[in-house]
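Worked Example 4.2. Consider the chain below.
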Amino acid sequence: MHKKLIVLLFAFSLLVGACQPNAEPTAVAPQGLTVIVHDSFSASEGVISAFENANNAKLTFIQAGDTGSALNRLILTSVGSQEPEADIFYGLDNTFLSRGLEQDLFEPYQPAALAAVPDEFKLDSTFKVVPIDYADVCINYDKAWFAKNQLKLPGSLQDLTKPEYRGLLVVQNPATSSPGLSFMMATIAEFGDNAWLEWWQAMKSNNVTIVSDWETAYYTNFSGSSGQGPQPMVVSYASSPAAELIYAETELEESPTASLVAPGMCWRQVEFAGILRNTPNRDLAEKFIDYLLSKEFQEDMPMQMFVFPVLPEAVLPEGFVRASQIPETVASLDPDLIATKRDGWVNDWTNLMLD
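Applying the procedure from the previous section yields the following structure tokens:
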């Protein structure tokens, strides 16, 4: 009887303790969410922590190279898998869109904020991916180099084949680089399916430089960024000069670089995000897609990745607007044509330029 009484008193004390108003609640561990992104992805720490705090979440970002490389990695690791490498892919663009969709990588989701996004960006009617940002792929040039060498700027893609521009342009491989593929698409739109390879042959003869990714092209080869690269022209973005102005070591009146935005020289790149099939974190993934289209995240992107938000109500920073150039016209191709011919075009380009 004595032992039973002790047990009863102990149980009663535990019950009373649990009912005390000052008892500490048991903390719930944050739910993890993994997002695979291209190497240019960036978001401010405050914006990321705001999502984590609001949803008791812990975000992990996997940088997987340029868009083409990241997509290839997902196809190898996630197609048909019950345990995908990540929960979300951010950075699929309109040149790789059909390839990503035909691999059945994504689960459909239509966020409420998508209703406010202009139709021109809604390129997937199945809502397996949703548009997040856009930017115009153009050729950037080093102002000081052209002034020092008293060389007139090329006014068209065709001008670039002239002897005076020999060896002055660096481009990215379209098989691995999103801006490289976008630029290749611009040349196809400009010269047509029957003549675009002739232009590339002329560029090969004119010593165009080819690298695998945007980071190498811009930060190693381009003279306008490091001041030491051998090429004064690079395939980049019309918003890249804004980055050069805003992040200059000393305050500048204007950007040291600018873009060639004549008709036929730029391609509008739209980036998407999608929830990967078989994610075990579907509810949290939906919340993050919602967050990517929130005003908070959309207004953070211009200064982080130097891209334009797709949400019309997002306010753009003054410095970003001042130094970014917006082409009056951009090259385009029918999405169905891209889906049908993209791989063949890339193979033809590779056989010609990398033999």
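Confidence is low (pLDDT under 50) at residues 1-19. Residues 135-267+328-353 form a domain with the D-Maltodextrin-Binding Protein; domain 2 fold (CATH 3.40.190.10). Compare this with Example 4.1 before moving on.
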